[in-house]
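Possible regression after last week's pipeline update?

I re-ran a chain I had predicted before the update to compare outputs. Posting the input and the new output here so someone can diff against the archived version. Not blocking, just want to make sure nothing changed silently.
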Amino acid sequence: MTKSLIYKSSFKEINRLAIPAMLAGIAEPLLSMADVAFVGHLPQYATESLSAVGLVGVFLSMLIWILGQTRSAISTIISQYLGAGKLEKVKDLPAQVIYSVIALSLVIITITYPLAPEIFKLYNADSKLLELSIEYYHIRVFGLPFTLITFVIFGVFRGLQNTFYPMLIAIIGALSNVVLDYILIFGYHDFIPAMHVTGAAYASVIAQILMAGLAIYFLYKKTPIRLRLQRPFNAEMKNLATMVLNLFIRTLALNIALYLGSSFATRYGKESIAAYTIAINIWFFFAFLIDGYSSAGNILSGKLYGEKSYLKLKNLGNQLTRYALILGFVIAIISGIGYYPIGRLFIDDAAVLAKFYTVFWIVLLMQPINGVAFIFDGIFKGLGWMKYLRKVLLIATFLGFVPVLLLTNYWGLELYGIWISFTVWMIIRGWVLLNKFKHLSIFNNDKS
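New output (post-update):
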């Protein structure tokens, strides 16, 4: 009887957090997907424009994920202090983190803006593709500080066990980006000229500014936390910095895989990089969709760990694994039914679509595997075990992804090889984390 009640309570609590987090999580990939979908239907240079948006999106995602790891770190700390009943001790931490990431993002803008040509040449971009990549990046990069502000505040809300306001902000941001994309890319009668790729970049930046403004508004209206910078630094700043450093190294490894995928796809020709761009943006979208349950794992595991309720934590991990597998299969099946229409949403070029359709099935088969890996990413972040996550990603990247990519490239598998490499990468990540979780010694020391 007790076990049943615990399960029902957990199911309700998990979904109360996971479903809003799922909707909030897809905001960032939706910004890029909307840009990709609209520019892919431009009357001129559609393939090059789509590819440029994809390359810049991968590079910006690298920057956002590296600096945005503060979201997971601050969520972990706040949720653990909440579970321990000591939230007052970390109320000044969010402001210190936000000002730190703003400063770092301004340094990155200053360095990368003039180096944009060299950056995208590293992705094997040239001619029109290089020109459009630089044009798009020189605008999109100014949205970086606003995205990072939003990420940190989302982390605060997650730590407070609230994913509703991040969801609301994300939906408003995503919808505004879609509307602005249509108006600025294609123009609006005689009032607004068609700006093509430049319009897509402006649309994303405006949406990012709007989301940051809303995030600050709800932080002030709905929480006791304020963004006044206070000295000295909070005692947890050192712990947070250690977490972020481990996540930084982990994210570098992750982005090496993404960089190599984009670089090899560009090497295979403009149709290949366009097809890869569509596939990777869909992959990101699915990843952030599943990440809703990963976020619930992050939020609840941190609180349960702070309470020392280890058996409840074990039950949570088992439940989330089941949910992630079910969600992964549902995504694969629904997308399989819409296999061909999905491709045509992004571009009409028959050569690009032909390449996309030959590998999209691999992206779909990966979804249940991704679900398990992402769930335990979230749980281990909630526990604060960032060092272990770093080790797993390094192993998966350098002993899994990179060797398989080089081998499949040698065999001439091109896009097939890239997506086989990603599949191996995710299998290693998911299996290692799942196995580690099953054998955690803390499950023998429950205090609940």
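Follow-up from reviewer: compared with the archived run. Residues 1-9 have pLDDT under 50 and may be disordered. Marking as no regression found.
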